[in-house]
Amino acid sequence: MYTTAALRRIVLIDIENIVGGGVSLPGQVHGAQAAIAEAIGQRDNDHVVVACGRFSVNVVGFEWAGPRRLVFRGGNNGADLELLDILETERVGDRFDEVVVVSGDGIFADVVSFLGLGTDVTVVSRPESCSRRLRMAAKYVLDLDYDPSVITEAA
Fold it and tell me: How much is the pTM?
């Protein structure tokens, strides 16, 4: 398990990137949350931000366990753009000792690289879906053990 002694940590999660598309089943949320907790460890004082598209917001909002900030936006890369907005405008590097980006999308590479100049930045992603640019930009990269094809719901 991954641990660090950082005092304040923000965890920004693009849940649709982890589950491989839109979220329509509670099991997708539960599975993703468990895999993320296993990869980074769970801290009571983490500031967790979960981002999704507008068609996933009901399932994600109701099924994510524990405190979190839920952001959503419609359109292409809606969740990514919400997380980028937070990373670029909310002084994340000044407010947190550690930033964890749970996504494999290359759209985060530039901001991760910039934040990494003064803050520990970790990228967590399924290994097969992590952009090479993003891998190179982060100080740490953790592979997420989540197989989106095994999530099913009972009828």
Answer: 0.91
